[in-house]
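Dear colleague,

Thank you for sharing your sequence with our group. We've completed the structure prediction you requested, and as agreed, I am returning the results in plain text so they can be pasted directly into your records. Please verify that the sequence below matches your submission; if there's any discrepancy, let me know and we will rerun it promptly.
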Amino acid sequence: MIKNITKYQKTIATISGIAATFAFPPYYQIWILFAAFGSLMWLLNKTESCRHAFALGYCFGFGFFAFGLSWIANALALDMKSFGWLIPIALSASGAFFGFFIALPAMLTAYFRGIWSKIIIFATFWAVFEWLRSFLLTGFPWNLLSSALTFDHQLLQLSALVGPYGFSLLLCIIFSLPAAAFTAPYRRNALISAFLCIFLSGTIYEWGVYRTANLDSNNFSDIKIRVVQPSIPQNLKWDFGEQEKNFADYIEMSQAKGFEDSDVIIWGETASTFPIAIDRAHFYQLLPAVPDNGHLIIGSIDYHQDENERWLPVNAGLILKHGKGIVDSYAKSHLVPFGEYIPLRKWLPDSLRPITKVITDFKSGNGLVTYTKDGLPPFGLLICYEIIFPHHVIDNNNRPQWLINLTNDGWYGTGAGPYQHLAAAQLRAVEEGITIVRAANSGISALISPTGKIIASLALHKRGNLDFYLPQKLSLPTPYSQYGNQCFGIICLAAFFVASLLSLLAKRYK
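Please find the predicted structure tokens below.
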């Protein structure tokens, strides 16, 4: 039996990587992570070859990312004629590239002896490579390991202390513990792994219960927010024959019952496919949707000049004030590769364009901004996937009290993408200790507390308005918001020292 398993190690590693994706939203099958990480770690413990360990980690990573990012296919399928051929290439390329981010931590285990040192060193570098994934080649920190716990906000609270990467390190150790239980001496290792699993899991849960009990609040201010979610299908959003209807739909929904006492009305990303800032006809058509003595915040296409005086499209957020028109704006700074610009464009065919309905690349903005408007607590604006980058969601020199995240997840249909995007917003709320208001064209629009609790939401593809009052306490201080990843660096050094010590002991008493 063991020989047969050994024969198919790479296949087992690949299947384990695929299986692990079912622990993430919207499935939340957490138990699978114990099987997936336990299997990979058991296989890594069987080899002392760097090349073999690298291959096992790469197979796991290929399955994890190629399958875990399968929702990308939905965006490409919206224009099958232009982009359908890219679907297998995009999924394979995702697995092939991001697989290295797991292959290298796996390879490093070959330099250590003993199951305990291997578990700790793998977990340490799993977290390090999650951190590297957040900024290398513009970054893509999607489905960080802690995202698997967003089904219960109480389980997320440790990330306020150690950040998402420190939390991932701890979780990776917990999920890898079954490998120790199946490693000789079996009885001793099984007892130790069971104890560690119960102790560490219990600590995470008890800390979360304690923190949320002290910080969760049911007290709300008198600032009323309305988020408009028309759930316009993505294939109709940019249709020239539907754009006028879609625009009128947003205005009509904004003016529905409750409009009179709304302080802020929010539309999602590119809710207006017309450049409101320069399109005067649609600007005046829009004005009745601005509440009396209040603000309307919308996602809109805009155009800015670049250094060569060319007018380029901008993915913008516009802030309108009753009686004053557009009083401020935000230009999305962190653009989506291939979605809003084509990397290495000069080496690629001129016919290749972003999957958004533009013929050229978008222009990026100048960075994060905190806005101070009459009657509103200071707030920040983020557009779409800017929310997925830990410790890069607010202006740290002028911290806001709440964030507005304009997004459009209609690209991703009914797949896992919109749920995983929401989970990223929950984690940022906990890490930064800040309230987040999420406005999505097709959902999931939500009010998220500073502890990551979803206070109010509209389901995916449900049409309607989400009305709520802002919490009285909009922000909380957290160690991670103050010190960023400094604590994570210290944890990594300590873990590396422990792993090295255990490895030396394993060699001595082998």
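Summary note from our side: The chain has two domains: 2-215+485-508, 220-472.

Kind regards,
the structure core
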